[in-house]
Amino acid sequence: MTLRIARTAFKNIARNKRRSILSGAAIAVAAMSIVILFAFIGGMSKDMENNLRSYYTGDVNIRNVDYEEYERFNPVHLTVNIDDAESAISNTEGINAWVPRTTFGTSIYIDGTNHAAVGVGADFEREAGYIDLEEIVKAGRLPEAGKNEMIMGTVLAENLHFSIGDKVTIMTMTASRGTNAMTLEITGLAAFPVAALNSNNLWIPLDRVQHLLQTPEAAQQIMIETAEGYNRSKVAENISAALTAAGTPGDVNDMENMSLMFGMLKLADMIYNVIAAFFFILGSTVIINTTMMVIFERMREIGTLSALGMHGKELVRLFLLEGAFISAVGAAAGVVLGIIITLYLGRVGIDFTDAMQGVDMEISAMMYPVLSIPKTIFVYFYSVIIACLATLVPSRKASRIQPVEALRYI
Amino acid sequence: MKNKLIIFALILLLPASAFAISGEEIVRKADDKATYDSAEMAGEMRITDRFGTKTSTFNSWSRGENESLIEFTSLAERGQKVLRTENEIYLYYPDAEELIRMQGSALRQGMLGSDISYEDMTGGKDRASQYKIEVTGSETILGRDCWVLSLEARTRSVPYPKETVWIDKQDYIVMKGEYFTKSGRLLKEMEVLELGEIDGITLALETKISDKMKRDSDTILIVKDLKANVALDDAIFSLEELSW
């Protein structure tokens, strides 16, 4: 009996190819969109975490014990001694790389006017083992330690009409809460992955920043990359213990405990998931709507089948099977298409450079979607199940009406 | 003899206000007192903020009311200079290859993070013509009888639209000052902590300035040495010499 109904379902699908293809295509487009959306959101989350790790916190971060309390007052003098940090790090397992960095607010002086920027003091030799500097420096070369040189974000350079070889005077507050200024030569232009950095960052050799800010032998923070398989929180605990044992306590936190930064990441994740839920509901509506419409428009056919002796339950089964076949093929096509598009975009990326200008978020201007296999499998089965369930409402209704009444439907 | 008696009687009959010095005159005399034809000074600034107190030392040279040069001598700021010419303020930093001209909102920044802004330096000393001045009373500060004067700006080109100042009746020294926005919000306070005499000149040896826009912040300006009316080379106040 079931086999006969299945054969009928197949025949029905084949009989009205245009209707079946349109219905399947709607399901395919919905499934494909959801797969791409999940990959896009996955990519954004991963990207934000990478950027936080590379440019803001590291997996583990060491700062002065009082820094967080006074952070909003730009406490340039609250620093970490690099030698103290190095000895604590060298006595701790599970560390891949570490870099000292000092980030400070500055203004670029051009003919009597000041332009706000963010200076970053970096040890470029160490940075090479921490971030992909080759990829970042798009033109020119890296600054040399001991020289008054800098690399400037490409967007900032473009906005202020600077190019390689130009000399730029910057002013800033010092650790003694006075002011100081320094003239630096631009040796390279940097295309940072984060738009905000691109439009305001100047990277300067750390020793020159120490001189400028009057913070000898010190950095504002030490950013640490943990080795694969090591727990960030455990590594942070061990470094903290080593610093305390050496009599030089520091504020050591793993990424999750950097209150503001990771909190922002979590908030962003939540916002993405809410957006995803909306699109997911939208996709589901397309599937439900298409499936239900296909059945409602076939009331005359249902009446004929009832008149020929097909019972209510058989009718429900027939439409359920029709929906299942169409959605299985449609969802499969959509998911495969979604995977292909995601893999392609994951390789070439989506360029949001123009759109991200002036956006102060830790999201890269180039977005690379990340495919999630479990989520993709979920999307496939979800699409099939939702399509099958959507057939139940109209087919159950149809099974309860009299053949004569059904035949009146136009 | 009869005529003399009549004149004496007329003088006695004149209202007391005819002898009173006007607010404009008090302020003009106070500004003149604070301005030297030329002067060389050594001083110290003790700047206190939420992170503690730091001391910066400096030497300064001034000529008239529009030219001055400050050179910082304390370790953290050694070699930094602030030059005020008639219309501009320039900063020199040893590691900068160009002079920095302060203008616009940058003038409101505190010099070396102190409570004294660059704008305070530019404030012309001819307040008598820039403000509508009214004597509102008398008060005693540091044992000295002072006029209390209320100043309201006639022009927009002054750092503070409203001021209340206490001026010593004996030596015309500004003993205290309160500086307000147009709507009456207190921006800054100045108070002499110690008066003294150097080289025969009575002046404020210690003055406390508090920027009310900053929390827990004040600056004490201390005059260590002063030589008035000394011969100064023109080059001291030139841009060309500033970077040397």
From TrEMBL, chain A:
Question: What organism, scientifically named, is this protein from?
Answer: Candidatus Thalassospirochaeta sargassi
Could you tell me what this protein is called? ABC transporter permease
Q: Which residues form the ABC3 transporter permease C-terminal domain?
A: 274-403
The Swiss-Prot or TrEMBL record annotates one GO molecular function as: transmembrane transporter activity
What GO CC annotations are associated with the protein? plasma membrane
- How does this protein lie in the membrane? Multi-pass membrane protein
The reply to whether Membrane figures as a keyword in the UniProt entry is: yes
Main localization category = membrane
> Which residues are listed as membrane-spanning?
21-44, 270-296, 317-346, 366-393
All residue ranges annotated as the MacB-like periplasmic core domain in the record = 21-241
Question: What subcellular compartments does it reside in?
Answer: Cell membrane
Family assignment? Belongs to the ABC-4 integral membrane protein family.
Which keywords label this protein? Cell membrane, Membrane, Transmembrane, Transmembrane helix
Automatic annotation (TrEMBL), chain B:
Mind telling me which Gene3D superfamilies this protein's record contains?
Lipoprotein localisation LolA/LolB/LppX
Protein name as it appears in the record: Outer membrane lipoprotein-sorting protein
Pfam families associated with the record: LolA_like (PF17131)
Q: Which residues form the Uncharacterized protein TP-0789 domain?
A: 64-243
Which CDD domains does the record associate with it? Answer: LolA_like
Q: Where is the signal peptide?
A: 1-20
Alphabetized UniProt keyword annotations: Lipoprotein, Signal
